Amino acid sequence: MLLTLASAIEAGRSCEELHWSGQGYFFSIYPKQSCKCNLAHYLGLGHHLRILNFIIGTFDKLNLQIVEQVQVKITDTQFDNVEVRVYEPPAKAEENLRRSVVYIHGGGWALSSTRGSFYNNLCSVMAKSLDAVVVSIEYRLVPDFHFPVQFNDVLRATRHFMHPEVLARYSVDPGRVAISGDSAGGNLAAAVCQE
Fold first, then answer.
1. Which pLDDT value is given to residue 184?
2. In this structure, are residues 21 and 11 in contact, taking their beta carbons and an 8 Å threshold?
């Protein structure tokens, strides 16, 4: 259960208590940032998820972590008006068609981005190590868009990718396409597989 700062104050609890008691996903991961976001939300300065996404994005830009450079071609494009990022490993002379992974990022349908350093690095390494074309879908997020928009974005982008002419453009074998995701992205991946 996600508790806002207002409800915590009404209950006489501090953010540190919320963090240690494990109540609230954001409190347990980003206790100080979450309290600031909820305070801003409570004061009417903006939705706490937008503020938290801004904070995460700011720290992501400041991230000085050195990541192994991977020779992967990265292309931002749209599949059926849904933004995607395509990661293509270097071509091998002996291969005609490659395998592929459609990857859906996590974040509770509300946080993160395929363009953030974590998911960008993950998909680059996945493309290189699996020798697979990775399509990472940038679905629209809560609070601006509510269910079933996220599911519909992922389903539309995946269906578009599976068209024979699109698979041919990326030299992908239609019989070797996997769909994967983490957390909320795993939920979306499982739902798309049911279609």
1. 92
2. no
